[in-house]
């Protein structure tokens, strides 16, 4: 196993499993098809993408009285990337916060996110989402979503404000929302691949062109094509482009196809690119977030990611060669990802650092058993065994552990300023659990610019493009340089609901 | 004058003179006009923009044998933003480096730029430009451009490799290039406002739509419209979007219309936005550079900017309230701009720091007299007078000056690691010159993605868009997070020449 841990960076990254796909299947079109050519089918609202944003938009559209609402999903299953995310949901002023006596506010949540955004987040959008986050959470609960009975305090958040689905993944929300959407009368079609917008004479969006019977793996562009009319509007909720390797490399040449991603393969961003062709403003595409909780020992999001998110507050991350801490374990994602990739040997090869947790604590997370079973994390009875296994200097590690536990006892981390909430004053003690850390491409902060009404702005006129709305990860600029964990689900759902409400407000 | 220096940040920024323009005049078009509608006029190559990139492209196109080459400029004067830049030109292995015995290489120049680019610069493009930079410099000299007889070492460069025009501004290059372009037979038309691309049936660029007789100040969109055919291709060389306030704010909400810019008013980026509508890939738009050498006491690029660029290597920058240095005076631009805006009082109001130089040295730059005449810099016989004037603590300032001069003597800056070249071992001594520093929006690292052949890539297919080329600041991704000073002119000229050469190589 020691050999396994000494693999070079290149091997390490090659072995991560999921690699990006080369290029989108849709052909380049000089101009959008025109509405004058007629339609095969008519809807009031067409929603592209079946993740958190699309499902919330669909439910809200029906509840606002729209008759024909359809959600199109290019993949064979519903939920997109949302279904495989961590199921973490941040909201202020929630029921569990009241129960636990946590003092929180919309403003506190906005300020935490602004700090992570490093000066370029969109404060108006952040406030709009934070104001409606609890409402979206309650929609999940109404739909039947179940949550762990405890709050978590994720990196960059000043208080515990994060719910997590009891299945510890996003499907714990997308499945109930799907059921509710169908009950409300939303039509949902899978293997329906968005090709292009259909525009009217004034440049507004009148509908879309879609390919039915699409098989992602086979890259078929031969399915049945239809032109669908959107009488009221199109809501794009297609997520990010973490799996579009040429596009992410155009923004960051280091994000080659050797770098893993937590995203499902369909996250390739074609609808976003088509919005740019209509005049949508590209915002912050260069800000691509890597998850600091990922493991180099498994593919994709895996089991370790959620395990780490849960355990970071009461764990110690150390450099394997020195045995010393190198970061605040609950700093924001970018700060941690940047710190983790500094762990290299003299030749510059990756040396994934170790996250050390008391087994007793670690095992409180449901993934702990799976982490052990799949050999992507290891249990040690003593610190000596642990140090031997990873070739870490024993005395240094022992000293670091004593120092860290001293900070926990004192309630103040003098090394890296980690916030030690009362609920997290937990020392790291034997027996120990260890996982290795190396970031994976996780989230695209960039996308198309939207207003707080979820409208897409024309880059030349500054006015909304008629009939076009966007919500969720496909929208850019909300979070700035770095999104805080558990702030994506509220954003997706609130902006999806907002798009439907904006359309409803214009119906009259 | 003390009152003047105590103005609040808001006042300070409001007073900068040039503010951004609201929005581009061109109407939003759902689709590009089609070539089937015919043309009013025919060219081989249409070049949009008359700065360094456009002029170099025009000259090279004629020299490669193209018959009808036209440069279109929307403003009433030639040269665009290039004409008012600092006229600084970096190249490795130049004649002045040989004369001075400076050891330099293409690789060294590339490595310096990669460091400033913070991991996301385009190494292939940087190398292509560095390899051809000296050739572009020699074209300037052939055209009649005159340069100061000394090399400068700008921030972030590891050796002196920067030429500067003897008039210390870009017009010292654009004027000779314009003369040469006309001599070679390039047609040049001012007040010709690019509106849109004309595409052929396959989505390639067949020509453009232009408005003649355009008056920027009056925002007329009523001039005579023509459709111009580009038989071989269109080269977009329109520069950045530093003066497009809504667009720059979409990327960075803090860059409001209260923030000054060094750019001429026409730098609003419409042609870049139209390229995105054709499918060009937006790259790094969020990376907008502020010039760390700008003064809050004058509008635009002014006199102080060039004065500072020349003087930084042998000057000391200090916080006004503490008298202490706060940065390496020749770090890269982003490092310095970030450090400068940290100079604030307890209320967060801007406290522009002071750049202190020996008058004897400062006066070697031609702008020194103008800086004094226009009251945007001040001369003091003693350090006491200087400290009194700005309310800076005398003892601290005196101690800092002695410390700094000690580093100069020793050849090593133990405070901030400033590289002290032998030619810059110059102490700061009485009488003193002082200017104040506050960054201004200067350069857009972002733009449209190009290949090393200056082709524009289609975001969906990854293939070049037929007939479309881009060069200069309008292209994005080359420099990454931060461009080094004096690397813009070589980039613009080399990529302009490259676009013409790519077209020529396909003629056969």
How would you summarize the topology of this molecule?
The structure is a homodimer of 508-residue chains.
Chain A: H1 2-5, H2 9-14, E1 41-48, H3 52-63, E2 69-72, E3 88-90, H4 95-100, H5 106-116, H6 123-143, E4 162-164, H7 171-184, E5 187-189, E6 192-199, E7 205-212, E8 224-236, H8 245-251, H9 270-278, E9 282-283, E10 288-291, H10 304-311, E11 315-318, H11 333-340, E12 354-358, H12 359-362, H13 368-373, E13 378-380, H14 383-390, H15 394-410, E14 432-436, E15 440-444, E16 447-448, E17 455-457, E18 464-470, H16 488-505
Parallel strand pairs in A: 1-2, 1-8, 2-5, 8-18
Antiparallel strand pairs in A: 3-4, 6-7, 7-8, 9-16, 10-15, 11-12, 12-14, 13-14, 17-18
In short:
The first copy, chain A, is an alpha+beta fold and 508 residues long. Helix content of chain A is 31%, strand content 18%. Chains A, B: It comes from Ferrimonas marina.
Report on the architecture of this protein:
Chains A, B: InterPro entries: FAD-dep_OxRdtase_2_FAD-bd, FAD-oxidoreductase_2, FAD/NAD-bd_sf, Flavocytochrome_c, Succ_DH/fumarate_Rdtase_cat_sf, TAT_signal, TAT_signal_bac_arc. Chains A, B: This is Flavocytochrome c. Chains A, B: Belongs to the FAD-dependent oxidoreductase 2 family. FRD/SDH subfamily. Two copies of one chain form a homodimer. Chain A has two domains: 318 residues, FAD/NAD(P)-binding domain (3-Layer(bba) Sandwich), CATH 3.50.50.60; 146 residues, Succinate dehydrogenase/fumarate reductase flavoprotein, catalytic domain (Flavocytochrome C3, Chain A, domain 1), CATH 3.90.700. In chain A, 31% of the residues lie in helices and 18% in strands. Chain A has 16 helices and 18 strands. In chain A, the strands form five sheets. In chain A, strands 1, 2, 5, 6, 7, 8, 17 and 18 form an eight-stranded mixed sheet that branches. A four-stranded antiparallel sheet of chain A has the order 11-12-14-13, with helices on both faces. Chain A is elongated, with a radius of gyration of 23 Å. Chain A starts with a helix and ends with a helix. The N terminus of chain A is likely disordered. Chains A and B meet through α8, α9 and β9 of A and α8, α9 and β9 of B.
């Amino acid at each position: 196993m020691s050999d396994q841990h000494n693999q070079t960076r290149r091997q390490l990254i090659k072995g991560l499993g999921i690699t990006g796909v080369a290029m989108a299947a849709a052909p380049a079109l000089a101009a959008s098809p025109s509405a004058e050519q007629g339609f095969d089918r008519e809807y009031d609202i067409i929603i592209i993408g079946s993740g958190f944003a699309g499902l919330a938009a669909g439910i809200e559209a029906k509840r606002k009285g729209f008759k024909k609402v359809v959600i199109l999903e290019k993949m064979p299953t519903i939920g997109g990337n949302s279904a495989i995310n961590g199921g973490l949901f941040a909201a202020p002023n929630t029921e569990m916060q009241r129960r636990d006596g946590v003092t929180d506010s919309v403003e506190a949540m906005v300020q935490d996110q602004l700090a992570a955004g490093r000066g370029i987040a969109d404060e108006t959008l952040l406030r709009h989402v934070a104001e409606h986050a609890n409402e979206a959470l309650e929609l999940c609960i109404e739909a039947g979503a179940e949550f762990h009975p405890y709050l978590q305090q994720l990196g960059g958040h000043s208080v515990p404000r994060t719910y997590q689905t009891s299945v510890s993944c996003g499907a714990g929300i997308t499945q109930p929302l799907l059921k509710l959407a169908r009950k409300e009368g939303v039509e949902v079609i899978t293997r329906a691949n968005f090709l292009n917008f259909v525009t009217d004479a004034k440049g507004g969006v009148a509908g879309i062109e879609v390919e039915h019977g699409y098989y992602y793996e086979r890259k078929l562009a031969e399915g049945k094509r239809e032109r669908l009319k959107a009488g009221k509007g199109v809501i794009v909720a297609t997520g990010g482009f973490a799996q579009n390797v040429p596009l992410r490399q155009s923004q960051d040449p280091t994000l080659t196809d050797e770098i893993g991603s937590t995203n499902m393969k369909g996250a390739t961003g074609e609808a976003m690119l088509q919005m740019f062709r209509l005049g949508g403003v590209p915002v912050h595409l260069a800000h691509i977030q890597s998850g600091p909780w990922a493991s180099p020992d498994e593919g994709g999001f895996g089991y370790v990611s959620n395990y780490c998110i849960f355990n970071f507050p009461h764990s110690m991350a150390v450099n394997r060669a020195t045995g010393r801490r190198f970061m605040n374990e609950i700093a924001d994602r970018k700060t941690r990802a940047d710190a983790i990739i500094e762990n290299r040997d003299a030749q510059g090869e990756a040396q994934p650092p170790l996250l050390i947790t008391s087994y007793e604590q670690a095992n409180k997370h449901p993934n702990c058993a799976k982490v052990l079973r799949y050999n992507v994390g290891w249990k040690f009875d003593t610190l000596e065994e642990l140090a031997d296994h990873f070739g870490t200097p024993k005395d240094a590690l022992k000293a670091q552990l004593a120092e860290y536990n001293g900070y926990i006892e004192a309630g103040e981390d003098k090394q890296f300023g980690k916030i030690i909430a009362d609920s997290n004053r937990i020392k790291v003690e034997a027996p120990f659990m260890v996982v290795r850390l190396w970031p994976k491409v996780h989230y695209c902060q960039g996308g198309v610019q939207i207003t707080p009404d979820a409208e897409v702005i024309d880059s030349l006129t500054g006015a909304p493009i008629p009939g076009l709305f966007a919500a969720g990860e496909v929208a850019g600029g909300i979070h700035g340089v770095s999104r805080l964990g558990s702030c994506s689900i509220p954003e997706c759902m609130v902006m999806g609901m907002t798009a439907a409400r904006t359309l409803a407000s214009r119906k009259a």
